[in-house]
Structure formats: structure tokens, C-alpha cells
Write a structure and sequence with these properties.
This protein is mainly α and 200 residues long. It is built from six helices and two strands, in the order ααααβααβ. A two-stranded parallel sheet has the order 1-2.
Length: 200
């Protein structure tokens, strides 16, 4: 149900998207710092909702659907706005594209495997990728509005590159783990099987 706290936390990440967008239209330093604060709070809910759902045994199909959708919408929208407002250097456009491309590929793979009744859980390395990615975007949202003594934007771009490298690795692991199932016919009356990337 949508009214459970884990699902409400997941839904709050979708609500946060227009709020983050709005901060791009605000003057510096308020806009960048407020955008970082909203994005960071939304990122925390990504960790909290799953933990609460498992602890309180409130996992649901709605939550399983909304959670990855909310994450991808939040990340994709924020990266797009950073690029549109020239708050990403040309050298950082590539890792942003790699991250977005991987998310589309993995989403398509998950959808196909779901039709074959094959589950694909998130790997530990993918969780680290997500954490580094979220921290990178937080730094990039602050950008040049950060303290002059700290190269905030450079740190964010470096972390984005690290996240992109992990993105390629985890994307390959997921694709390799799922490839054996892609050409199989849909099973009838079988329970969902779970596959795990070999890297974890």
C-alpha cells in the first residue's frame, strides 16, 4: 500500500524531483546549497525505505516498482539539469552519459527477466556505485557555490568518474548474469528464480 512509511519515503523521492529542479532557478549560493540539501535527503530515503520495509516486513510489489523508478528519475533529472546549466564540465558529460545508459540497460534487462520469472537483486558493488554517485551529484549541485578553499566541483566530477567506472563494471556483471536467461522461453507456473552477478 502507498500509505506504508517505506512506500511514502520512496514516493517522497519523486516529489523531491521538481523541488531540486526549482533550485536551479534560484540565485547562488541559496539555490545550489538548497538543491544539495533536498537531493541529499532524498538519497537518504533510498537507503531508509528498503531497510524499514525489511525490518517491518512491509515489502510490496508497489515498493519494488517505485523504488528503482524513483532513483532513476531523481538521478537522471538532476544530471540533465546540471548539464543544461553548465554546472558539468565537458569532461564530465561522458560519465553522466555512461551512468544514464547503464540505468536504461539494466532497467530493460530487469523487465525482460521479470517476464521470465527471474529476479535480479542489487549487488553490493552496485550499492557502492549508487552511494558514490549520490555523493558526487551532491558535490556537483553545490559546485562553485562551495567554499573557495575546497575544489567542490572538481571533487564531484572525480567521484562521478569513479561512479561511472563502477557503473560499467556492475552493468557488465548484470548483463552477463542475465544473458543466459534472455533467450529462454517464459516458464509456466514456476516461482521466481534469483540470479546474482558473479562479482559479488
Amino acid at each position: 500500500m502507498l500509505t506504508t512509511l517505506p512506500n511514502l519515503l520512496t514516493f517522497s523521492r519523486i516529489v523531491a524531483i521538481p523541488l531540486v529542479i526549482a533550485t536551479f532557478y534560484m540565485a547562488s549560493p541559496l539555490g545550489p546549497w538548497l538543491g544539495c540539501a533536498i537531493f541529499s535527503l532524498a538519497a537518504v530515503t533510498d537507503w531508509l525505505d528498503g531497510r524499514l520495509a525489511r525490518m517491518w516486513e512491509q515489502q510490496s510489489e508497489l515498493g519494488r516498482f517505485l523504488d528503482p523508478v524513483a532513483d532513476k528519475l531523481l538521478v537522471a533529472t538532476t544530471l540533465f539539469m546540471l548539464a543544461a546549466y553548465d554546472r558539468l564540465s565537458m569532461g564530465s558529460i561522458l560519465p553522466a552519459l555512461v551512468i544514464l545508459t547503464r540505468e536504461i540497460m539494466v532497467s530493460g534487462l530487469r523487465e525482460h527477466l521479470a517476464g521470465l520469472r527471474v529476479g535480479m537483486p542489487v549487488s553490493k558493488l552496485a550499492k557502492w556505485k549508487t552511494f558514490i554517485q549520490m555523493v558526487a551529484i551532491g558535490f556537483l549541485l553545490v559546485g562553485d557555490a562551495g567554499p573557495a578553499a575546497i575544489p567542490v566541483r572538481a571533487v564531484g566530477e572525480l567521484l562521478l568518474w569513479i561512479a561511472a567506472v563502477l557503473t560499467v563494471k556492475t552493468g557488465y556483471d548484470y548483463l552477463r548474469a542475465g544473458l543466459t536467461h534472455i533467450n529462454r522461453p517464459m516458464p509456466q507456473g514456476r516461482s521466481i528464480k534469483t540470479i546474482k552477478p558473479s562479482a559479488t
